[in-house]
Amino acid sequence: MRYFPVFMDLQNQVVAVIGGGAVAERKIRLLLKAGARVRVVARELNEQVAAWQQAGQLDWSSAEYTGGQLDGARLVFAASDDAGLNRQVYADAESRHIPVNVVDDREHCRFITPAIVDRDPVTVAISSGGESPVLARRVRGWIERLLPTGLGAVASAAGRLRDAAAVLPLERRRQFWDRLLNRATIDELARKDDAAIDAALRGALNSELLADTAGTPAGRVILVGAGPGRADLLTIRAQQALGQADVILHDRLVPADILEVARRDAEFIDVGKRAGNHHETQAGIHELMVEHARRGRVVVRLKGGDPFVFGRGGEELEHLRAHDIDYEVVPGVTAATACAAFAGIPLTHREHSQALTLITGHTQPGGKDPAWAELAGEDRTLAIYMGVKQAATLRDKLLDAGLAPELPVALVTDGARDSQQVFHGSIRHLPALAARAPSGAPGLFIIGRVARLGEELAWFGQAAEAQRAA
Question: Is 273 known to be catalytic?
Answer without folding.
Answer: yes
